[in-house]
Design a protein that fits this description.
846 residues; mainly alpha; Triger factor/SurA peptide-binding fold; Chitinase A, domain 3; four-stranded antiparallel β-sheet; 9 strands; 67% helix; globular
């Protein structure tokens, strides 16, 4: 992390600097006022008579987000992800409350400083400001002129920047003086320091407490564990022999179960087992159950912790004591000021989240429930917020319950408390689930929400169904089918899940499976119009019009004007070779819903019945109505192709390809273009790419081969064939084509790209990821290319990887190049194979 900071130090400092200073104002320099000209702005809260409007809160919130964004960026993370989706809505309210709390804090501090007549002398302020300002310039490595120029690009003057920084320094100094006044002098006596030392003695250990134990693990057999435990308790018990015979802990079994001296957290056992071990007396045996199974432990030895003498650490103790007393006095004072402050929050959601960030989840929940009951908030996430608070209370109750259950004996009061916690835990869980699902009903649910429900109730059918629909809408059909299956495991008669599996199968083109699912659903929900229509469509897609016909007729009988049923009858007639009869059904469907799909079907029926001009007019209608969609263009291309006008067909196909979104549609259209224009290399490259995305590697290779016939030695095609052979695990073929591509490549950038692929392919060839001779050679060539480009760090990395994998590979050349790049290299004789000198040659011939 320090390496990252040093590399990007200037950028990080700029980011953090501007997150605080480039905004209109910052938390410490907000101007609060009670003047009437501010009443036009919407007041969101009033702190001790000071009105804070929405604009001020928004600026404070933005500054807080900017700060976190800069902080996350330092660690290579994107804070904006924290603000997305349902969890992002909750995070935004937390940040908003934190910003509001910061504004309230500033009001209290400023008012108390004025009340106590605490001020900062001008000379002291100027000195501190100049020091801060010069430190900023020094940190950024710029002078004032460069800073002014940079600020102007950001729409800020140097004077305004300095004024804001001066306000910041003044605010900090004022709070520091108030802090000193409130805390007062801290002069601990030796007795107080000694008492503090004894109370926090663990902080001053030179050696921690350690124990040595014998350990036997029996995973699933409680009866056997009890029997072995009884044997282990016998005075003459040999735990070494018992461990070798019974223990299922492979790490310690062969050592007789002995775990040598360790401090807390160093045994590798669970905390419950370890804590029990530390509580035993030497020679005592205990049986402990945890998630692993049953642990029989015997304490073999104990070493007390060793502490540094008080006099040796007295200065450290005094510093820690003073710091704690200082914090305690200040926090108690501020807590009192905050408790007695008059704070009126106009926004009920903000009011609730202020309680939440202050640690009072129950009060936050009460306020949200009140807002919901009174209808004082229009926030669509209200039910979700309630779910989060109920979930937090559920988890807290669970932790408290677990703590009580770990006790060996409970008092009557504790038993009563345990039952109360169990009841509360169930109540909070139920309310959390209900709140989450109530929010999901408004259509704003996401994966995070459904996962929260499933964490609370793994068999919740609504959550599985919601998650399945979410996955299906994203095109993640396997995940959707899995969630539908889990819903069925919870409720085997759930028709919605069975139909959902049918819908997923249809989307994947698995029509036979879709028929099976829809048929099963129809058995459970006899006469369902929707399922009947879906089943009929599946039969038609599967090329079984005879099976579809009675279902389509049944659907039309039930609902003669239903658009879907009318289209299905048209599709059925088309499948039966009766396009003229299909036209009337499509026309009736279009009259009710002139969608692109229906218009295309009507155009196809016109074309199939020989009414070419009507077909052209219908496709043209689709293009004008839905110019952003590809279907009209593709079918117009089909029309011209079938009429023998290939040039016009190609024009329409290319327009269709530009508008297509799904890979399967792009693939189909590109195939049509290639069929009419086999020498269009650009389209062949695109088609090969579409095939690769669909894992059709042989088809992609065929396209690259066709390109090579037209453009022998084309680097991109040679490289593409290599790319196709790698996932087919034909590494020799991949290497051969990569080498051909490398021989033809001209630019260093392209050569580096190909060499990188050779290295990765060769690593995949080896199950252990070892570097083959070919990979080492590719690394060597890439290192030389990096060096020629001036990229010494990457060159060093490649050379060092070679040295680590095989010190004998091009040993002298690698070492020489590393030294040239400034790397010190040790060259022990055994790592370098040197040619033999005459004196080393066997003398048998003399």
């Amino acid at each position: 992390m320090m390496g990252f900071f040093n590399r990007y130090r200037k950028q990080i400092l700029w980011a953090v600097l501007f997150s605080f200073l480039v905004g209109s104002v910052v938390l410490f320099s907000f101007r609060f006022t009670t003047r009437s000209n501010r009443t036009q702005a919407q007041t969101v809260l009033v702190a001790n008579g000071v009105k804070i409007d929405q604009e001020t809160l928004n600026r404070a919130y933005d500054q807080l987000v900017n700060y976190y964004t800069s902080l996350y960026r330092i660690y290579g993370m994107d804070f904006s992800r924290q603000l997305q989706g349902t969890s992002g809505a909750f995070m935004r309210q937390r940040l908003r409350a934190q910003a509001a709390d910061g504004l309230i804090h500033r009001v209290i501090i400023d008012q108390q400083a004025r009340k106590l007549k605490i001020s900062v002398p001008k000379a002291e302020l100027e000195k501190a400001f100049k020091e801060r300002y010069q430190n900023y310039l020094k940190s950024l490595g710029v002078d004032e002129e460069a800073l002014a120029k940079y600020l102007s690009y950001r729409g800020m003057t140097l004077a305004k920047f300095q004024a804001q920084m001066r306000d910041q320094v003044a605010s900090e100094l004022r709070e520091k003086k108030l802090h000193t006044y409130v805390v007062g002098p801290i002069q601990p006596t030796d007795e107080e320091l000694l008492a503090y030392y004894n109370e926090h003695k663990d902080r001053y250990q030179s050696e921690p407490e350690k124990i040595k134990i014998a350990h036997i693990l029996i995973k699933d057999d409680e009866k056997l564990a009890q029997e072995v435990f009884e044997k282990a308790k016998a005075p003459d018990a040999d735990l070494t022999a018992l461990a070798k015979e019974y223990s299922q802990d492979e790490k310690t079994k062969d050592k007789g179960g002995v775990i040598d001296w360790f401090a807390r957290g160093g045994s590798g056992l669970s905390s419950s087992v370890e804590e029990k071990a530390f509580s035993l007396k030497v020679g005592e045996v205990a049986l402990v159950k945890d998630a692993q199974g049953y642990h029989i432990i015997k304490l073999l030895g104990h070493k007390d912790a060793v502490y540094k003498p008080f006099e040796e650490v007295k200065d450290q103790v005094k510093k820690a004591y003073t710091s704690e007393v200082d914090s305690k006095r200040w926090n108690e004072w501020y807590k009192k000021q905050r408790a007695t402050a008059t704070v009126e929050v106009k926004d009920p959601i903000l009011d609730a989240f202020l309680s939440y960030v202050e640690g009072d989840t129950e009060e936050a929940l009460r306020k949200l429930l009140s807002a919901k009951e009174k209808g004082t908030s229009a926030d669509i996430y209200l039910d979700y917020y309630l779910g989060r608070l109920y979930e937090a209370l559920y988890l807290d109750a669970g932790r408290k319950r677990a703590d009580l259950e770990e006790k060996e004996e409970l008092s009557p009061e504790e038993k009563k408390r345990l039952e109360e916690l169990k009841s509360k835990e169930e109540e909070y869980k139920r309310e959390a689930i209900e709140s989450y699902l109530a929010f999901a009903a408004v259509g704003e649910a996401d994966e995070d929400l459904y996962q929260r429900v499933l964490n609370l109730d793994p068999e919740n059918v609504q959550a599985h169904l919601g998650l399945a629909k979410l996955y299906a809408d994203r095109g993640h059909y396997l995940e959707a089918d899995r969630e539908y299956q889990r819903a069925l495991e919870a409720n085997p008669n759930l028709v919605q899940a069975i139909v959902g599996q049918g819908d997923v199968a249809m989307a994947m083109g698995l029509y036979t499976h879709a028929i099976e699912r829809y048929t099963e659903a129809l058995k459970k929900q006899t006469g369902s119009f929707t399922i009947t229509v879906k089943l009929a469509e599946a039969y038609l897609k599967d090329g079984k019009p005879d099976e579809a016909e009675p279902l389509v007729k049944e659907a039309l009988k039930k609902s003669p004007s239903d658009t879907h049923a009318l289209k299905l009858m048209g599709d059925l007639l088309m499948a039966q070779g009766k396009p003229a009869e299909a036209i009337s059904y499509y026309q009736r469907a279009v009259e009710r819903s002139p969608s692109a799909e229906l218009l295309i079907a009507l155009g196809d029926a016109y074309k199939a019945s020989g009414q070419i001009e009507k077909a052209r007019g219908t496709y043209d209608d689709v293009i004008h109505r839905y110019s952003y969609r590809f279907e009209g263009y593709e079918h117009m291309g089909d029309l011209y192709r079938d009429r023998g006008n290939n040039e016009e067909a190609l024009r329409w196909y290319r327009d269709a390809l530009r508008r297509a979104y799904r890979n399967e549609d792009k693939e189909r259209i590109a195939e049509k273009i290639v069929a009419l224009a086999p020498d269009d290399v650009e389209i062949r490259f695109k088609l090969a790419d579409y095939y690769r995305k669909d894992y059709k590697y042989d088809a992609a290779i065929q396209q690259y081969q066709e390109i090579l016939k037209r453009r022998p030695g084309n680097v991109e095609a040679l490289e593409g064939i290599g790319d196709c052979y790698v996932p087919k695990t034909r590494y020799d073929d991949a290497l051969a084509y990569y080498k051909k591509a490398l021989a033809q490549a001209k630019s260093p950038k392209r050569k580096i790209q190909i060499l990188t692929k050779i290295i990765e392919s060769e690593k995949k060839r080896s199950s252990a990821g070892k570097l083959t001779e070919e990979a080492l050679e590719a690394l060597w060539q890439r290192a030389n290319l990096y060096k020629a480009q001036g990229n010494t760090e990457k060159a060093k990395a490649d050379l060092q990887e070679i040295r680590k994998a095989d010190p004998n590979f091009r040993a002298q050349e690698v070492i020489s190049l590393l030294r040239e790049l400034g790397v010190e290299v040790q060259t022990p004789a055994e790592t370098i194979s040197l040619p033999q000198t005459p004196s080393q040659t066997p003398s048998g011939g003399q």
